[in-house]
Amino acid sequence: MPEKKEPKRSIRIRNACDVYDVSRSTIYRAIDNGNTTPIKMGGCTFLSVKQLDKLFLGVQE
Fold first, then answer.
1. Which residues, including other chains, have CB under 8 Å from residue 57's CB and lie 6 or more apart?
2. How deeply is 30 buried, as exposed, middle or buried, from its count of CB atoms within 10 A (0-12, 13-18, 19+)?
3. What is the C-alpha to C-alpha distance for residues 41 and 4, in angstroms, rounded to an integer?
């Protein structure tokens, strides 16, 4: 039986711009305003997909 893939829970800033069709400036503004919290791992910055969905798509928990 094939393994079920877990949905991505975090995404890099570059990919978030493409997925949500927003500019890098918009992403950094969201970080500065406290609307999303960056996660630093080994020199890479990730963002929570859940927070971005709520911010840009209006998805409720």
1. 20
2. buried
3. 25
